[in-house]
Amino acid sequence: MGNASPEVQGPARHVTRTNDEEGFAHAVDTFILGQPPLARTKLGLPPRARACLFSLDGVLTQTASLHARAWKQLCDYYLRQRARSSRQPFIPFDLVRDYSRYFDARPPLEGLHAFLDARGIELPESTVHALNDRKGELLVELLRQERVETYEGTVRYVQAARAAGLRTAAVSASRHGAELLQSAGIPDLFDARLDATQPPELYLAAVRALGADAEEAVIFEDTPTGVAAARAAHFAYVIGVDRVGRPAELRRHGADLVVADPAVLLGQDEAS
C-alpha cells in the first residue's frame, strides 16, 4: 500500500479486492471521500466536474403554466383598462399562443417588450418595469395557492450528484427562485441559489458561490439562449434538456449533449 498512513492502511485491508492497488483505491474513496468510486463516476459527466448547475424553470420545476397564468392576469388587466380608455376592442392574452411566442424561454422583461411591441403599445421603461414587478407579485400569489411540480428525473439526478460529492446550485433569471424552490419542496438539495440576474453573469456567480470555476462546472439548461450563454462562459460541459422536441436547436446553440431527462445519465460512464 505504498506510503499510506497506518490510519488508511488499517481499514484498507478490510476492503482489498482482487489486487492491492485496487483495494487501496477503494478504501480511500470509502473512508476518506465517503463514497465508493462507482458513486462518484456514474453520472455521465467529465471527470473534472466538481459542480452542477440546474436551471430552475423547465429543468427542475414545471412552472411554465404558472408563469403563463401570471402573465395572462397581468396583461388582461392592463389591456382591458387600455381598451376602455381608448374605446378600442379588448383582445385578451392568449394563454398558449402569446406565452409560447413572446415569453417562453426568454428573460421576463425581454418577453414583455416583445409582447407590447406585437400589440403596437409603446410605454415608458419605468412602466414596463412596474408591469414586470406586478407579474412577479401575481406569480407569488399563485405559488401560495398551489404546489409547484418538479421533474422527478432531475430531482433524482441532483440527489445522485450530491451523493457523489458534487456541489449543486439552482439558477433562475426570475426573482422568485426561493419561492419556487420552497413551493416545490426541494430547497435543501442545493448548496446555492442564484436568481434575478441574466446569463452568463447568473451562471458565473453561481459557480463562484460553489467555490468552483466554470471549467469545472456542468450546467443543465433547457433554453437555447441559456445554452449559448453557458457555452460563452466556457463551462466544462453544457447539457441541453429538451422537453419540447427541439434537440437540434439546443445543439446548434452549443450543447455538448442533449437529453430528454437528466435521469437517463444515471449509471453512464464519464463523458470525455
TrEMBL record:
The keyword Metal-binding applies. Coiled coil: none annotated. Its cofactor is Mg(2+). It comes from the Bacteria. GO terms for molecular function: hydrolase activity; metal ion binding. Keywords: Carbohydrate metabolism, Hydrolase, Magnesium, Metal-binding. Belongs to the HAD-like hydrolase superfamily. CbbY/CbbZ/Gph/YieH family. This is HAD-IA family hydrolase. The lineage of its organism: Bacteria, Pseudomonadati, Myxococcota, Myxococcia, Myxococcales.
